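note to self — DONT lose this again. spent like an hour looking for the file last time. sequence + predicted structure for the chain T wanted, 618 res
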Amino acid sequence: MSLDQWVAGFLLPLALWILLSGLDDLFITAVFLVRLLRRRTRFDWPSAADLDAAAHRRIAIFVPLWREHAVIGAMLDHNTSVIRYDNYDFFVGVYPNDALTVEAVSVLSDRHPQVHVVVCPHPGPTSKADCLNWIYHGMAAWEREHDARFDVVVTHDAEDLIHPDSLPLIDYFAQRYDMVQIPVLPLAKPTHQWIHGLYCDEFAEYQTKDIPVRHALGGFLPSNGVGAGFSRAVLEEISARCGGRIFDPDCLTEDYENGYRVYRLGRPQIFVPLRRDAVGWTATREYFPHLFRTAVRQRSRWVIGISLQGWERHGWRAAPGQLYWFWRDRKGLAGNLVSPLANCGFLVWAAGWVRSFAKGSPWGLPAAVPPWLQAVCAATFAISLAQMATRGFCSARVYGLRFAAWAPLRALLGNWLNFAATVAALGQYAAARWRGARLRWRKTEHLYPDAALLRRHKPRLGELLVRLRAVSRTDLEDALGSLPRHCRLGEHLLRLHKITHQQMYQALSMQSGLPLAGPRTIPYSIEGTRALPARVVRRWNVMPVGVHGGCLHVGVTDVPSDHLRRDLMRFSSLELRFCLILPEQLEALSGGHLPLEGVRDVLPPARVAGGRTPARPS
């Protein structure tokens, strides 16, 4: 057989598969464009008055952890300061053999009264679903102890930046829907980080086009795993039907599985579309893997859970309309394996065209390729261009035109990444089935944004003062109108006698994530006050107040700058932990007018979370 015949034989199944998959994607794109042109993508967004008038259900936020001590502090400090909702609690699941994370969350539970620790009864890691199930039992134990009941459960991860309006929106839509999904978007990173940029492109397209079209066409809504709110009623029904296992511990993508479970129960689901406001996109933001190896690790878990375990559990037994979505969710098993071959074929074709163009000779496909197959190849190429243009449009909408310009090259990288992930998934799945073993939870390492990026997501001090009912919105607007140049709002409100120091520092604590000094939040000691030289204390107007757990706790009257942190680190080998302290309290301490024991009387007492002992599932 000649080389041309081999090429023709290779092109036939490849081109037909790519055409079939491309037409499927083109159908979704066509529906998206029709809805966009007919303005059917408009969403009935609730007004601020609607959100205020909602039921304000009690919401429990589940955060499963394994070796997340490095990020969980920033996550909880930041999110508790930005969430525009009062009736919520965090239930954080940890393992007894993860001492660093247990210690980190225990400290946070002392700092934030709405943070509660749930310790799994066995060593970890098991699976995310198993940890979530024990968090649910821990929440139920807390409810019995405090005679309370949560109406909605929201799942999040340790790397999430929760949008300030996420919980109000979930509360509003939970009046009519048993599952509410807030979008998920990667945080922007420099263009040269190709792997993370690929996630940005894919999620922008998925959240802008695929999920809204899927929802509009009646397809079941898979949970994203984060920013997903479930009514208590639907979780209790799942528990009754699944032997108490609300989240399936054997499934590597319990979020996808629970979305399908909610649909099968006939319960309504809703996807809240992307919208840009003063804070940013209405979405849960986070960093995704930026290395090829870690991306393969994460995506292989997705392939196993969605495609292989989904096929194993549900087969193709579903209503005809849902079978189509099964096809879309599982076609990557074949598509991911052949995409690199298509890329190689395209590169060979492009190289041949360039060579022929340089020599001035005509170029075409081998003579053994029939005209109809050449037409199929041309059609697949045109569909690919249309799909790439759509992805570029979605990516540019979220991340800007300059970033989206590199989407085609990132897509080529994505084909090889998905190929490697699918090969890894098939190997892991086959090995587990051969040994009769459970599939292992391959956890992704998490990274939390730095302080500069978090500051851009913080609410303004005036907004927090209004939320605390320290000042009315009318008085705030009047103060903003009369604000002198080079004067900060809090100082101006103090001069106008609209707020007290205590109220301002309470709002500043919420905004910065720094605890407000109190006898139950800061371990005071005589030794602690001598940990820094007196001249350094006077220069920066700070007060070291105690040493605990290898950390030096320092009281400050303002959010510490990077320069202050670096300077203090020169005089202490201990890790620095800052807390806010009122100016008059700092003056009393530094002036020696108040003995250290009197700190307990003058410093504001911190609210302590109910039950400091970590809740254990019964």
